[in-house]
Metalloendopeptidase
Amino acid sequence: MGTLSPFMISCLCLAGAIVVLSRPTEHTQGNNLKLIFHSRWDNFDERGPYMGGDVILPPGMDIRNGVIGDHLRWPNATLIYSLDRNFTSPELAIISEAMQEIEALTCIRFAPRNQNETGYIFVARGGPGTGCYSFLGRLGTVQQLNLENPGCIRKGIVMHEFIHAIGFYHEQSREDRDDYVTINWSNIQPGTEFNFLKATVTATFNVTYDYGSLMHYSKYSFATNTSIPTIIPIDPNAEIGQRERLSDKDIYKINAMYCPNYTT
């Protein structure tokens, strides 16, 4: 199957999963893993031409942190996907590892597409310059999740794009973000300011702002001068832009969105 036009992407998940949740605190660090926060703008997923670099919004949709409409969510918390035949074996292993990690931490499941499935994610192996991108939520038809080679086929970036497909936008798009970060508008590349717009409606599931989210921009995103940050955390000790793993709050919000039987 060849690379399709930008109306495609993949899927997730398992029905009926019951997950017991405890609400993450301000300072929970998950498995106490040391994360890698990027000191310069090297997150490929932030560099594309779409909203936020890597997100294609469904028709008529405004910016949100989490998709509110049930029609944009994946039935039974299961993402249906098809993989580009041009991926190499090592690349397929990375994609599989990303899906397995999401499954291990949330109620989301991934299922390969069968010939009767019309709503699914096509995970495309894009050439240089095509970028990393995904549609936000489920379209109900074929939708593309593009992974530029090289650059995008890293476990953390693959997970990031799948989380967009699950239904989450970037953390710094939250309507309350100005309480947590300052945007340095004077250093943003001309013509890319739209990537820093705030949401008018935010589905945060009562979870506080997450500097450590896999879905947060890095400090130097879309910077004209890459030695000067475009996003400055108000908390001087906060680090942003990691692409290593889901944070505790990422995990909580995904489960809150898709698992109706969860308890806090």
Q: What stands out?
A: The longest strand covers residues 120-126. The first helix runs from residue 89 to 105. The chain has one domain: 44-254. The chain has a mean pLDDT of 80.
